Amino acid sequence: MIRRLLLAAVAGGLIGLSAGSAAADSLGQGDEGAPALHPAPLTGAAWLRNDHPLYLTLMSTALPDRAATLAPRRSAWALAYLDSNTIADQNNLAVTDRIIVDAELQRIELQWRYGLMEHLEVGAAVPYLILGGGYLDGFIESFDELFDAVPRARRIRGDGEFRYLFRVNGQNVIDETDTTRHGLGDIPLQLKYQFRDEADGWFPQAAVRGLLKLPTATDSLLGGDRVDGGVGLLAEQPFGERLRVTLNLDVTSAHLPLALKTVDLDPVVVTGFLALEHRLTRKASWWVQYTAASNPYPTFDNDMTALNRLPMGIGLGWTYRVSPRAAVTLAAGENINSAWPDFAWSAALDGSF
To answer: 167 in a domain, yes or no?
Structure first.
C-alpha cells in the first residue's frame, strides 16, 4: 500500500521544488522582521490518526501535538477534516469469530488551545463524526488496479457500500448494513506543561500532559460511556534551520464503543507518534509521520490481522503558512498493517491570536 504514498511524495517533491524556487520566499531572504524559520507552533490538527472503526475510541484520547505551549492569554484554533477509508473481511477457521469492515469515517473537528500562564496550556477538541459508505472506494480501487493489487475484500464489495460486522464466539456484537451513523464524538481535553525550552541547548524542547476524554458521543458506534484518561510526554528537537522532529508518547485507559462493550479488552493503551518536518521556505514545509500503538484486543486467530497486529500507519503532509499566525495543511496516509485505515487524507486551517 506504500505505493500511494510514494506517488504522493513525488507530487509533494514537485510542489516543494516549485515553492523552493521562489527567491523572495527562500531561506535567508525576505523582508526585515520576517517570521523565524520555526515560529510558535500551531495545532498540528492535520496530523493523521487511527480512525479505523475498531480503534476509534481507543486511540482518540491523545491527539498528536507539539511540545511548545502558547504564551499566557494567547489562543490557537484549528478546523480540520479527516477522512479514513477501511476495508477488511477476516475470520477464524470455524467462522465463529469474524469481522467485516467496509466503511469510511469522516471527522470534522474544531480544536482550541489557550495559554493559562507561562508554560501551561489547556486544550480541547470537538469532533463531529460520520460513519458510512463514503466516497473514496472508487478512487482507491482504480489506483490499486494500476498495480494489480486490489484486495479481495475490496473487489467483492460495491463502491460506497457500508458494512460493519463484528462476530465473537458465534454472536454478532455489531451487524450494521447501509445505514449511515453520524453525531457528536467523544471530546478529548488536555492540560500541558512545558518544562524544557529550546533555549536550554542541545536537548529537546519537552512537555508533559494530562489527558481526559469525555463520553459525549451521541451514537453507540462513535463513542463510549466511560471517561478515559492518561498521561503523555511530548518532545521536539530542531536540527539546523530546516529540520524538526516531534515525538509523542502517551499512556491512556481504554474502553470500547458502547456497541462493543461486551468484548474483553486490556485496560491500557500505549500510543506513539513521530513526525519529521522539513522546511522548504519560510512559508512552506513538508513532513512525514509514523504512528503506532499497543493492541488492547484479546488474542484472536492469526488470520484476523486487524485485531491481533499492532496498529501502525504512515503519512505525508504539506503545510503552507498564509501568514505568521495562520496555515493550511493537506496530508495523506495509509496502513502499515490492517489495524489502521487502508487510506486516509486530511485538511486543516489553523491559526492563533
So the answer is: yes
CB contact at 8 A, 47 and 345: no
Q: Does any domain span residue 157?
A: yes
Looking at residue 289, its pLDDT comes to 95
Stated as kind and residue range, the H or E segment containing 346 is strand 343-352
The tens digit of pLDDT for each residue in 201-246 reads: 667 899 999 999 999 999 988 988 889 999 999 999 988 888 999 9
Strand intervals (E) in the chain: 75-91, 98-117, 120-132, 163-168, 171-177, 181-184, 187-196, 205-214, 228-239, 243-253, 268-279, 284-293, 312-323, 326-335, 343-352
> Residue 288: is its pLDDT beyond 50?
yes
Q: How many domains does the chain have?
A: 1
Whether 249 and 272 have beta carbons less than 8 Å apart is answered as: yes
pLDDT greater at residue 306 or residue 141: 306
Distance, CA of 335 to CA of 305 (rounded, Å): 12
Determine the structural domain holding residue 240 and report its residue range: 2-22+34-352
Q: Is residue 13 part of a domain?
A: yes
What does the H/E/C string look like for 128-192?
EEEEECCCCHHHHHHHHHCCCCCCHHHHCCCCCCCEEEEEECCEEEEEEECCCEEEECCEEEEEE
Residue 261 domain-assigned (yes or no): yes
Q: Which amino acid is at 11?
A: A
pLDDT of residue 349 exceeding 80 = yes
pLDDT attached to residue 220: 86
Residue 288 in contact with residue 273, Cβ under 8 Å?
no
